[in-house]
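SAMPLE LOG
Freezer: B-3
Tube label: C17
Construct: single chain, 173 aa
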Amino acid sequence: MAEALVLNATYEPLCVVSQRRALVLVLTDKAVMVESAGQVLRSTTAAVEVPIVVRLARFVRVPYRSQIPLTRKGVLARDHHRCVYCNAPATSLDHVIPRSRGGPHVWENVVAACGRCNHVKADRAVADLGWRLRTAPRAPSGAAWRILGSRRMDPRWSRYLSTVGDVSEAASA
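STRUCTURE (predicted):
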């Protein structure tokens, strides 16, 4: 089964769960189906549509996370799985300013790199090698990054995610 978007009672996107979990939420009256996936599950006594978007029946207060956690999948998705130095397929992460030289482990200093570039760069700064970054690394923003992270976004979710941000582009790459 695929995944379903869960909305708060106020239609604010909360998270993504499996379609099975979304169906259980609907069957236990904890959520209402907003949009169907177009599939029907049948049993001997009932036929139930599979949800792709559900809305919780009661409002849930969720603590707001101001920063998106730095993860390998997130960095690769942000950089479209391409090396920022040579545009080859990325297989590893690299710190622009090496950690041994005081570089922090933050979104603005971590980039996707191919194994060859990462090995050649080693413990040196980009300026020492005369290289340049194709794009400046930055922290991802928007509701879609907070909700989806590096997951693929179902096109039917786009109207419920008010600011889609870069995740739809990154996830489709």
